[in-house]
Specification:
The complex is a heterotrimer.
Chain A lengths: L1 H12 L14 H25 L12 E8 L3 H14 L3 E8 L3 H8 L8 E4 L6 H5 L7 H6 L2 H4 L3 H4 L3 E2 L2 E2 L2 E3 L3 E8 H6 L8 H13 L3 E4 L6 H15 L2 H7 L9 H15 L16 H7 L3 E7 L2 H8 L1 H6 L1 E4 L14 E4 L2 E5 L6 H9 L4 H9 L9 H4 L6 H13 L3 E3 L1 H4 L5 H13 L4 H9 L5
Parallel strand pairs in A: 1-2, 1-3, 8-9, 11-13
Antiparallel strand pairs in A: 3-12, 4-5, 6-12, 7-9, 7-10, 7-11
Chain B lengths: L16 H14 L14 H21 L2 E2 L7 E2 L3 H7 L2 H32 L4 H11 L6 H11 L6 H4 L1 H4 L8 H30 L2 H9 L4 H12 L1 H16 L3 H6 L11 H10 L4 H26 L1 H9 L2
Antiparallel strand pairs in B: 1-2
Helix pairs in contact in B: 2-15, 3-15, 4-9, 4-12, 9-12, 10-11, 12-15, 12-16, 14-15
Chain C lengths: L6 H4 L8 H25 L3 H7 L11 H42 L3 H13 L8 H10 L6 H25 L3 H9 L4 H12 L1 H17 L2 H6 L8 H12 L3 H21 L1 H12 L2
Helix pairs in contact in C: 2-13, 4-7, 4-10, 4-12, 4-13, 5-7, 7-10, 10-14, 12-13, 13-14
Classes of the chains: A alpha/beta, B mainly alpha, C mainly alpha.
Chain lengths: ~450, ~325, ~280
Amino acid sequence: MRHVSTALHRRASRPSRPSRPSRPSRAPGPSRTSLAATAVVCAAALSLVTGCGSGSAGGASGSGVIHVLVYGDAGNTVEKRIVDTFNKTSKVRAVLDTIPGADYQTKLQTVINNPQAPDVFFNWGGGSIAPFVKAGLLMPLDDMIAKDPALKADFLPSVFNTAVVDGKSYGVPMRGTQPVLLFDNKKVLADAGLTPPTTWDQLLDEIRTLKAKGITPIALGGGDQWPELMWFEYLFDREAGPGLFQKAVGGDKSAWNSPESTKALGLLKQLIDAGAFGTTYDSVKFTDGGSPALLAKGKAAFELMGSWEYATQQSANPDFAKDQLGYGAFPGVADGQGDPNDLVGNTNNFYSVRSTTKYPDAVAQFLKLMYSDEFVKAQLAIGNLPTTTNTPDFLSGSASPAYSQYQYDLVKRAPSFQLSWDQAYPPSAMTPIHQAVQRFFDGQLDANGFIQAMQALPTP
Amino acid sequence: MTRSPTPDRAGPTRPGRADRTRADRAARTRSGPAGLTRPGLVWALPATAFFTVFALVPLALVAVLSFTTWNGIGAPRAAGLANWTALLHDPVMLKSLWLSALLTALGVLLQTPISLLLGVWAAGHQRNRAILSAIYFVPLLLSATAVSVLWRALLDPNFGLPAQAPWLFGDGNLLGSRDGAIGVLAFVGAWQWTPLHTLIYQGSARAIPQVLHQAAAIDGAGRLRQFWHVTLPQLRTTMVTSTVLMVVGGLTTFDTVLILTQGGPGTETTISAYYMYQQGFKSFDFGGASAIALVLVVVATLVSLAMVRLSGYDAMRAGAEGI
Amino acid sequence: MSHPRMPGSRTGRPVRPNYLAGLGSLLWLGIVGLPLAVLLTTTLRTQSDYATNGPLTLPKRLTLTNYTDALSQGFAQDFVNTCVVTVSVVALVLLLVPPLAYTIVRSRRRSVRTVFRVFLLGLAVPAQAVIVPMFYLISKAGLYDDLTGVVLPTAAFSLPICTLILTGAMRDITPELYEAMAVDGASPWRVFRQLVLPLSRGGLATIVVFASLQAWNGFLFPLVLTQSDSTKVVTLGLYSFQTEHGVNAPGLLSAVVLSMLPVLGVYLFARRALVQGLMGVGGK
């Protein structure tokens, strides 16, 4: 290659005097080599561009493939296993795609109306799929259910109904129900002579004790914003009961302005000002493993988090998950109207089906696995709690039977199970909610500012 | 084919661009047939067509989309001036412009003195300077993504540097406080880009004729006065080049913000480029995002035009050639 | 280096060491070098060692598992994808820019000058600004989540600066050479092939490096236009590793080190072209 370019150069310069226009500062050596390299690269690139330019596509249009899109986290081990099980018997192959948690909703909405849309995708039911249903992008599953009634009958009705929109079913429950619990580090509590709090006042007391010992009382991944939201969800429920938020999300913006609302915000402010979360919480994230590490390493005593904390700890800090990870319900507030048994969180996750799928029969076969014994056992093994009717049969075989049984009883006896605010509102409200929540934690918004921000949200 | 008489080109020195343009113009009037060897418009066609399809059409579409409402699911619908009136009354938008300007200014103020001094120092040919310069260069080998990821890890308040050096970082809540987050963004930008500007200054400082320094030394000027009266004036065009690069780079910062702060805490680091991304791909208001984008385009174009006017296209090339 | 030696040292006048500047340069060495040193040592230690002892201590035991883990966790695939994107972008740029630059330098048509102005103006347009319509167009074209959809806009947005760089290089070819070839009756194609291309090697090397850097470091286009593991590029791999397992600093930073190795290679073998290319990136 090199001698060719030199020859070219010689022929080109022949007619001229030796005054080759070179800048004194330019060394000729490397550039000659790079020209040769350039030519090679160019040739290689051409063959690539023409040869396999589109071969690298991950599109759903390939023959005999259904794409399953799932929120990327520690729970993916089970989804991978289920896909493998499906592929053992099916002619149509399932491919699992994951998107890291922080970007899931973004990517879902950007891809849902593309040719590359997944055939089956993870969602939270409720407000998270309502815009898709409205745009006619989802396949009603009623025909599938007519052929295989177990697709509906084998799930707890209250859970299944979260994904029913306008009387039609759009989702089959997957993973499990995910109530938000107050997790703790048993060793840290024991060393401080404390037990998990059952009342708000007890929690405040324990925070003082822990602070005196130099431990951050509560780990909080404020960098992700939504972990902060959980504190609002529980305090509004404990103070006002589930009705306030239901009214607000239904469009009655005055609900945010009620005395209970101000009172709940006052309690939270009190907690923040007491230093319950330390000072660096907005620099810490849950999604990257930051706040779980604080809890596991004994740098913090509590963390308010969805039940998936168990799976997270199990994969990052298995020894801690086994021996030291404690859990309990959110404490009650003395004069509040909410039932201390109320839960907030994700009622369940669902698989919904894009109406354009080429292989509805294969999808139906795939969805049937969501109530299979294998699925239930595998979910229980990583700390998730499926809401199938056969779940109680396998509770004893879960990785942590006590944890699974505890959650199951909790969900069963909860008078209300509020879906996370950011999932109950349409996706466009998510950023404003998260920002308002974070600014309240930072002290940039006071109670009135927060209320105004909530009143400005778009409602479904 | 006749060889056109071009006496003004025969000199041994490289003619300036202006001279050559004049010469070209002169040649055009004098010799027609020489134009036979000139490439026609068709040579420029492929690149122009490609650029039109993948850059100009999208640019035009930005303007169109800014008058529509589109959530990414259905088709865009005409919305008149709705996005623009909303933008005018959007406090976050105004703040984001201010933040973009602030971060850019901080970048210039932080990077210019450091890179100027380092560049002049590194222009010396001592061996130790060469070795240090090689180390200074390393941050440039990392992508903005990699640099942000690196600093995000290093600045973790519980497991990173702040935990081990509280005398420097305090409680370590850098990314969670307004001043801390802005400071981190400015610092990380400087950490990544100062090496580049150091190089630019180093190249130009080496091109300063030594006689100037010698003459000043004979006049009894010390090191400081030489720097002030010889070096600095000679680097004036380089400063413009370097500042243009800093300003354009600063206005278009995106990766760093997305990875380090996501515009937070609250909206304290939501600069315009990030705000556009957030409105589009987080809140699914693609019409509003397009309006922000158009503002970005106009601001960037105005700034660049002003800078080019100020510096001249040749100054930019002179800076690049200094290496 | 072809720079002339500083006459100061040759004329024998002793150069007084500049202590203040030396001190300042050492301070900057700390600011640049310390994070880099921490970067390296962190990748060579276990995660638990890092979590308990912090970044500023030396590793208890050296290990390479972080690197092997990063490669086995799909980072190798990311590398392949980035290579495909980079090579394709460079190929497109090399196909499109040299003829354009040649025309701009040699043609006297008014239309060509207008074309050049448009490209110059394109310098000012930040790629972020067109991300929404780009997403729209690429989706409509069915190229979403396809590397082709990343290659096309990345190449398009490196055209202006590459054109600027290459026209600069081509303008330095003296008119006599063109005239000499004209005497031989050479066609524009022959002039291009035998005179222009060989004599603008430096510029070509620079635009190759610039386009490669743009493609290699590109983040926004892949972020918005792809989503699958099979189309993930290195920068996105870093980003998703960070969003998912950011607390695993040793693993994360190993990926950071891996991502810079190819550029380091270019630095070692083609420093000048790299520096020139970087200057273009700094302006974008």
